[in-house]
Amino acid sequence: MNAAIILFPGSNREGDALRALAPHGAAKVVWHGDRELPQGTDLVVLPGGFSYGDYLRCGAIAAHSPVMGAVRAHAERGGLVLGICNGFQILVEFGLLPGVLMRNAQLRFICRMQHVRVERSDTAFASRYKQGQAIKIAIAHGEGNYEADAETIRRLEGDGRVAFRYCDAQGKLSKSANPNGSTNAIAGVYSERFNVLGLMPHPENLIDPLVGGTDGKGLFESLAAFKAAAPAAV
Amino acid sequence: MSSHSEKPPITPELVASHGLKPDEYEKILALIGRIPTFTELGIFSAMWNEHCSYKSSRLHLRGLPTRAPWVIQGPGENAGVIDIGDGEACVFKMESHNHPSYIEPFQGAATGVGGILRDVFTMGARPVACLNLLRFGAPEHPKTRHLVAGVVAGIGSYGNSFGVPTVGGATAFHKGYDGNILVNAMAVGIARSDEIFYAKATGVGNPIVYLGSKTGRDGIHGATMASASFEEDAEAKRPTVQVGDPFTEKLLLEACLELMRTGAVIAIQDMGAAGLTSSAVEMGAKGDLGVELDLDALPCRETGMSAYEMLLSESQERMLMVLDPAKEEEAKAAFVKWGLDFAIVGKTTDTLRFVVKHGGEVKADLPIKQLGDAAPLYDRPHVSSAARERIDPARIEPPISNAEALLRLIATPDLCSKRWVYEQYDHLILGNSVQTPGGDAAVIRLGDGPKGLALTTDVTPRYCEADPFEGGKQAVAEAWRNLTAVGALPRAVTDNLNFGNPEKPEIMGQFVDCLKGIGEACRALDFPIVSGNVSLYNESSGKAIPPTPSIGGVGVLSDVGRTATIAFKRPGEQIFLIGT
Amino acid sequence: MKARVVVTLRNGILDPQGKAIEGALKALHVNGIKSVRQGKIFDVELDAADHGAAEAVLREACEKLLANQVVEDYQVEIP
Amino acid sequence: MKARVVVTLRNGILDPQGKAIEGALKALHVNGIKSVRQGKIFDVELDAADHGAAEAVLREACEKLLANQVVEDYQVEIP
Ligand SMILES: Nc1ncnc2c1ncn2[C@@H]1O[C@H](COP(=O)(O)OP(=O)(O)O)[C@@H](O)[C@H]1O
């Protein structure tokens, strides 16, 4: 699998993403000022960070970077796009995913281990998980409170485009298991064609038993398996 | 140069308002043989205040052990450096931002983190972890909540955006800090041991380059303020608050590291307290060179700034460097790529003078070495604290049952979980946090391992107050124990000595004796002090804080897979108590 | 020329900051405040020939960047 | 009664947000914008007998919570 990790000036989890992708093929870093993706890119990753300081709205300025045109074209061709944390914020600002990420309900940045429920496992991103499985994953964000108008939420739910929901260790949803006040405990959403995923948690930080656990690995393994099964997909 | 061309005229009041004592001013007159200009007075006040000159503490700091075979750089540079094997070095330091954090907790704490990160990456190291040590007033004091919320959010905001995990710290409360909280921040970075960068300039006629944010009127006289104790009206007199911009700092980090790889950097120094003045003077003085600055070229945020303001501004996220003229173009490419302001603002000279020009006029012309070397050095009178009466535990009736005492203890703000604090810090970024906050010491993996570092910050001011010598020893011993408890070999220390007004013999006595204790413990444990910071005049309305010499300890683990954690693992296991 | 842009959350969009402020004001015994919604302003200095040109530039700035029209409305005020 | 509170950064205080926006607008070819400073507004609904009472409550809210007077100024607008 050939991955392209987009580097904005204030990205800071690009190294974490590189490490998670390393076992699954080649990963290249692409500067935000570039206008093209490397030939043969299968997966575009927008990593975590504070792309432009994020003083206005998270991801707002990054969404206008020159490279984003190529990212849109890639997505329109059906190519895979993964936006993690700030990457998710950029994707909604850019319009590849619906909704918006507001300040956390308790108005504090929050970093901790958190469980999320895998809502479906029949996608390129989640085939290595079981539907309904609760996985332990890290969150680290100040603005991860997913909001959209009622119609959008209805559509997302109706089309099964919610990828992950915040839950407790048993997979149950509750107010206390929702760390940031997201509508319907949404932690990640898919695009209409399920080739674009945005999520607030950091699977790339859970790939090592020494550092918190390995529940994040499944996502990268799913992507690699998807690519292996459909080598000429894009 | 005419010393009368500038306003305001130099009066005893003006001298005093610059924090210079009459005898210190006499020393200036003797040194330069004339009345200083207003700009020069500002320079002296910045260089000779407690914060920059360590005039009350220098004498006593000399007694600390700072050497060991693994020490690459001890105190005196931006940060200390130790060899951790495999061609790698660990660069670290702790620094206080106490007064600014009391005035504006969010920005004060944020810029404290920014400053200490710059100290570390100035040396060529990529920061890998931050820690802090916080002391607040009594929980029920009306300002405490506001201060805690602001400080914690500020530390988090800066470190989280910059992209370095905040992996540990300490937080406690005591009424002795009601009017003067402590915010000590520590940063740790990793570099190749043969690629460390220093502040010492070399070569005559080399360009001095300014890089980073533009200069504004932020914190003018901040360094002087940091050395003046709080009076009731301190809140009215505050200077313009410094605002941190972690995004620019991140760009500065990447640009500096990229620049260093090109071989263009001869010397580098961050502009911290006393800004441009102290960074330029230090670079020249360390290299036995003169420095000539032309302030017309300085990138400014505001119009009409005077030389005095430019020299003393404490605007954040700025660096000064001496570049190899042959590599100027490569250097420029890095500045442009990262979108930072830069300008050639001067050159090195062979005159050993610090010359500042602005608007076609010479605003200052001073002997560069003496600005540092001739700074006052005081052996302040000190008296040791009276020994406290020993209490025989057998003679005390327990006021409550042990079980009740335990419940009360674990409910105290000092002992309760600090999760509320450290959850606001990204402690997982970089994916190397093997032991996260909440344990004895943090453990981070280096690269892909198996090597790692253990990091901790500790002090128990209660002990230092009761017996400064023993308290100083204990702080070091606790740091040492916390490192060994996670399986690390303790290697070196950074300290942050927070005390009251050194002009009071009993406070100076606390300082001297704590330092003796720290020195003795460090010697006994082969645990040298490689960097640190002194923060004096921590008083409000004439009352000093409890003596608080914070200790930051660094240890090395050869295999992070073999670390012990604090939690009991399963029921039925035996519990051992080790020690006396 | 100086101008101000005001960006507010659309009606119906939940405002966690406003809610938190309402709660905090109550806790501080500031009475009589029924609701708070937080927004942003941008004080802009610009070079523009006239009022119309200024408004055009500011609208462009809002649509391209300053406001997220999924959830926000904007208003341009030129004195 | 409805009112608006405007909180702006004091002169001379660095505004990293404004700076980032200036840079981004340039990159987006929105021309003619010389400087941007970002501030906050609070749209408040309140129970108050009259204009004077409303102003008093809002000032109290600003001093206690809405503005950080070390770095910010505030203004109360009651239509
Ligand atoms: N300000 C802080 N920043 C990061 N971690 C903290 C902070 N305060 C406390 N912690 C974490 O919580 C643990 C317990 O805190 P505390 O009781 O203050 O320290 P200690 O037990 O070391 O005396 C610390 O060891 C540290 O890991």
From TrEMBL, chain A:
* Catalytic site: C85 (nucleophile), H202, E204
Gene Ontology molecular function, alphabetical? ATP binding; glutaminase activity; phosphoribosylformylglycinamidine synthase activity
Q: What is its EC number?
A: 6.3.5.3, 3.5.1.2
Task: Identify the pathway.
Answer: Purine metabolism; IMP biosynthesis via de novo pathway; 5-amino-1-(5-phospho-D-ribosyl)imidazole from N(2)-formyl-N(1)-(5-phospho-D-ribosyl)glycinamide: step 1/2
State the reactions this protein catalyses: N(2)-formyl-N(1)-(5-phospho-beta-D-ribosyl)glycinamide + L-glutamine + ATP + H2O = 2-formamido-N(1)-(5-O-phospho-beta-D-ribosyl)acetamidine + L-glutamate + ADP + phosphate + H(+); L-glutamine + H2O = L-glutamate + NH4(+)
Q: Which Pfam families match?
A: GATase_5
Q: Which GO terms describe its biological process?
A: 'de novo' IMP biosynthetic process
Q: HAMAP family this protein is in?
A: PurQ (MF_00421)
Q: Which NCBIfam families match?
A: FGAM_synth_I, PRK03619.1
**Chain's role:** Part of the phosphoribosylformylglycinamidine synthase complex involved in the purines biosynthetic pathway. Catalyzes the ATP-dependent conversion of formylglycinamide ribonucleotide (FGAR) and glutamine to yield formylglycinamidine ribonucleotide (FGAM) and glutamate. The FGAM synthase complex is composed of three subunits. PurQ produces an ammonia molecule by converting glutamine to glutamate. PurL transfers the ammonia molecule to FGAR to form FGAM in an ATP-dependent manner.
Instruction: Please give the name of this protein.
Output: Phosphoribosylformylglycinamidine synthase subunit PurQ
- Native source organism of the sequence: Methylocella tundrae
- Write the gene name: purQ
From TrEMBL, chains C, D:
Q: What is its EC number?
A: 6.3.5.3
Gene Ontology terms, cellular component aspect? cytoplasm
Q: Which reaction does it catalyse?
A: N(2)-formyl-N(1)-(5-phospho-beta-D-ribosyl)glycinamide + L-glutamine + ATP + H2O = 2-formamido-N(1)-(5-O-phospho-beta-D-ribosyl)acetamidine + L-glutamate + ADP + phosphate + H(+)
Q: Which domain of life is it from?
A: Bacteria
Family statement: Belongs to the PurS family.
Instruction: Write down the top EC class of this protein.
Output: ligase
Look up the record and name the pathway of this protein: Purine metabolism; IMP biosynthesis via de novo pathway; 5-amino-1-(5-phospho-D-ribosyl)imidazole from N(2)-formyl-N(1)-(5-phospho-D-ribosyl)glycinamide: step 1/2
Cellular compartment(s): Cytoplasm
Under the heading Pfam families, the entry gives: PurS (PF02700)
Q: Which InterPro entries would you find in this protein's record?
A: PurS, PurS-like_sf
Q: How does it assemble?
A: Part of the FGAM synthase complex composed of 1 PurL, 1 PurQ and 2 PurS subunits.
Keywords in alphabetical order, please.
ATP-binding, Cytoplasm, Ligase, Nucleotide-binding, Purine biosynthesis
Taxonomic lineage of the native organism: Bacteria, Pseudomonadati, Pseudomonadota, Alphaproteobacteria, Hyphomicrobiales
Instruction: Give a GO molecular function annotation for the protein.
Output: phosphoribosylformylglycinamidine synthase activity
| Protein name per Swiss-Prot or TrEMBL | Phosphoribosylformylglycinamidine synthase subunit PurS
- Which GO BP terms, alphabetically? 'de novo' IMP biosynthetic process
Q: What does this protein do?
A: Part of the phosphoribosylformylglycinamidine synthase complex involved in the purines biosynthetic pathway. Catalyzes the ATP-dependent conversion of formylglycinamide ribonucleotide (FGAR) and glutamine to yield formylglycinamidine ribonucleotide (FGAM) and glutamate. The FGAM synthase complex is composed of three subunits. PurQ produces an ammonia molecule by converting glutamine to glutamate. PurL transfers the ammonia molecule to FGAR to form FGAM in an ATP-dependent manner.
